[in-house]
């Protein structure tokens, strides 16, 4: 237990998932946090599940990730990032920039949902293996049509940003850059063939991925045990049959 | 053209869709707005599509709805509602309440996405009729498992709100209440059997639906030609075979 850590993150212990977008912001901010469900022998899972329980907490979340910051208990990834961005200089201060960052983050949330539905197109209550034919159809559509539409959109955002430095919003690092890094990393893990085939269409986006990965705090995090590997329980899953 | 209207809404002209959550907020606030793509003979669709075009606008949206407010061009439904809520007293002023409202709105966005995927589980580039068997499987899972999980969650939010008045957030109307009204109305249109079967589980939520519908500005809107009917081009579609 780190009773002095300003933040507690509640998320499933074995996957990057949506929690990873929050972890990256906390790591880039350089603030201490406890990844509650990953603590050993301290009933971390119980504490995580309590954050979803209306009988225990006034503001229960429908699903993790959930962040505790003192008296505040905050759910929904984009909501947490908006909060952390304002607190730690990972978002513009002016209204227009804040709105734009939140808008882009919500668009990242949309593609992340679509990535999830590639392996679970019919039901989250069935295993992947029980919906594989539908998953093939959905993933083929995703890699051929949706993925290039989304990444082309984000490439355009970078191209049209008048500020220098190849950031999504303004001229400084924001949580949107961190999330775009994670999106590219995850898509490369899940769909290496589709990404390799199309990558020349997104030079700015891939350069942003590399520049985020090279930032000292992020590079240290990615080498640490705090960074879980991608796996087939998370959102970005590599099933070769979905990436012909 | 209403050159003095403070807001221009860019959304598809023939459907309620996600634009309806924004329309309800504008109507409840009692502010003038132009529903741009629905203007006759004024190239409304062209203007709407320009809001998505990075060659024309600095902050293009990936998809509508988009709201113009003077110099600001704002995309993503929850982002627009957060903006309007703060401006027009449709959200709490204090940080904790603002975060909670945004969190609930993002959870509404999640179930709305799942409603959409009931009729389009495999691809947004195919017609419903081309993915009907998969749609039946997805809709059966949605109505049996996901719908009660989400609506039970929102019922709990209302039950556990310590303030009086049966509102989602605090003791006053917020954009979350308006969106919950639209969610219930849409689900009743799309899945009347599933909703009738389960409705006794959500007395607070259904009472909130009725109280929002009875508010003078909302009641006047619902009777007006500005309120489009539900139809099978929107998000909430009624296909009897998906609602056994």
From TrEMBL, chains A, B:
Q: Does the keyword Cell cycle apply?
A: no
The reply to whether Repressor figures as a keyword in the UniProt entry is no
Alphabetized Pfam families for the sequence: GST_C_3
GO molecular-function terms, A-Z: glutathione transferase activity
Identify the residues that the record assigns to the GST N-terminal domain, covering every copy.
5-92
Q: Which InterPro entries match?
A: Glutathione-S-Trfase_C-like, Glutathione-S-Trfase_C_sf, Glutathione_S-Trfase_N, GST_C, GST_superfamily, Thioredoxin-like_sf
The GST C-terminal domain covers which part of the protein? 101-230
According to its UniProt entry, the protein's GO biological process terms are:
glutathione metabolic process
Query: Sorted alphabetically, which keywords does the UniProt record give?
Result: Transferase
Q: Which domain of life is it from?
A: Bacteria
Q: Which PANTHER family match?
A: GLUTATHIONE S-TRANSFERASE
Name of protein: Glutathione S-transferase
